[in-house]
Amino acid sequence: MNSPLFWLIPSAAVLALLFAWHFHHQMKKAEEGTPQMRKIAAAVRKGAMSYLRQQYKIVALVFICLCILFSIMAFFGLQNAWVPFAFLTGGFFSGLSGYLGMNTATYASARAANAARESLNGGLRIAFRSGAVMGLVVVGLGLIDISFWFLILNWFAPVDMSESARLCFITTTMLTFGMGASTQALFARVGGGIYTKAADVGADLVGKVEAGIPEDDPRNPATIADNVGDNVGDVAGMGADLYESYCGSILSTAALGASAFAAAGMGMQYKAVIAPMLIAAIGIVLSIIGIYSVRTKEDASMKTLLKALGVGTNLASVLIVIGSFLILWLLQLENWAWIGCSVVTGLIVGVIIGRSTEYYTSQSYRPTQRISEAGKTGPATVIISGIGLGMLSTCIPVVVVVIGIICSYLFASGFDFNNVGMGLYGIGIAAVGMLSTLGITLATDAYGPIADNAGGNAEMSGLGEEVRKRTDALDSLGNTTAATGKGFAIGSAALTGLALLASYIEEIRQGLVRLGETVLQMGDKVIDIKTASITDFMNYYEVNLMNPKVLGGMFIGSMMAFLFCGLTMNAVGKAAGKMVEEVRRQFREIKGILTGEADPDYERCVEISTKGAQHAMVLPSLLAIIAPIVTGCVLGVTGVLGLLIGGLSSGFVLAIFMANSGGAWDNAKKYVEEGNLGGKGSEVHKATVVGDTVGDPFKDTSGPSLNILIKLMSMVSIVMAGLTISWSLF
Length: 730
What we know:
Radius of gyration: 25 Å
Oligomer: single chain
Largest sheet: 2 strands, antiparallel
Structural class: mainly alpha
Shape: globular
Low-confidence stretches: none
Mean pLDDT: 90
Strand content: under 5%
Number of strands: 2
Number of helices: 22
């Protein structure tokens, strides 16, 4: 079944991992700086690795329990026997990508700060290429896992099936390893987000506002925990998150392709399955080219630095357009030119969401500057302005995603709304297009926490004013790229979530076949399950807006987004409260901290953040797994589809609002710290610091975790489809 073109997929994956190793090796050869810089970097590294070990122990217990559940389901014929193994590999590679990226980041920050002693470009180069390790590891491991399972299942799939049915079996089985990736990603995002923001809020409120000392000042007991948090939340968490999005978009599109092209013949169906994988493979090569094009000049402004990163991402995006059309032409996929337009649509949607996020969150533009100006009248108006900005900022991404969904659907379906299978394949491949250059887009995101830690290291090591000025410039750029990356991740989650929603129907088909069903009977109409369309399944399960089970599911799905955010926000507040009390205690009881005559107890603050995150991450993460199972057992397939629709629509908009509000509050503070409106220590600065602390859990805990919630509920529904169709209360 495998054509020569297929081998481009594992080859590109290996290439990505080789370049990741190369960039890591280059970074390790750079000097780490003074003894004090090395000491601080070692403390951050130790704290990050210690936290990750504790997190993985808890996640391992959850995985063991779920694996036992899936094995029992497989034994009773409710699930494919391969699912427990696929689930484990998805979780393993998701966790491994986060670990490798974070390991690189903890070694890179001191080296980036040391390089900034010589030049701005030197610091940018080390920070960005170290971020590229994360980007390339994610896409490399993702395609390795996909290639592995495609070959294994192709070899071991039941031989009593037709070739067309075998491809449908293979692609729907591969989808299930996405649940492992999603589960690991949610624990990483929620736990890391609680950790980093508990430390950040404590460090800012007591250090900046009460004690009046600078950010990352070594006298602040929470500063090491804050720097550790940047790595476990923004590097390991984001890596696991986008690994799951990347694999989910490819796998759901492959499953939709197998279904949509089932009647077109074995050759065409196979081409539709490997097309998203090949587009992702060519995206790896083009991302590497884009990474090498990023550089800047000394004394660059924020807009110049943004332009430098933009050159790399835009170059990769332009090249992927050409590469996608070339791949589809080589495959001679039916309607290849218009399907190529669907890929371009996904890319354009991603670019517009990124630019919109940049406009609303960068201090180079008026929206964020207006939040800074609101600080003249106190923290309350800063918070009101930030909330208003976040709400307004949802408009462009939502409208663009809606246009992207309709355009990609129409392009692939031949401009026929009734051609549902092909239209949904177009939406899936648009999501693949958006994520095809993830190697470089994730590099710009992972760059942010590395630059932030570099600035912290420079401050704690007492480097000169000129060095701190350079690291501040890199840090401010990192805040914007991180906000842009979160917007990108949320946008990709919307398209991927929709593709997974359609893939759920394919899993329902496979589940019915496993249970021995052969037809769908609706009154006098009898339809063969193997040839039934998605519309037939919708009619069979009465999925329409007048069905109370659909409406009930939609309300539960919408509520889940807010319940999840409430739990994670409260967790940050509780852990941050303990951190504030600890920092105050140390200032009060350890004499000489503020005069520099005594060292703070950094490890105690690291311990508080670790315990707070470990305890608080379990409930919201388990709710995301339990909700689709309970909904399925009570309301059946119809209710689950409502749940997924409600969760996707409300979660998408809420995630954009929270990520952009938080990013804008952060950069409004940075704008004042650059010397505007009174500068550091002024009343305006104190007001914007309060806004920043409110925004911290918005942008780094609840907001970015929502996109995983959307996809995890879809993945759980897919994996539990056998149970849902075999038994439900209504």
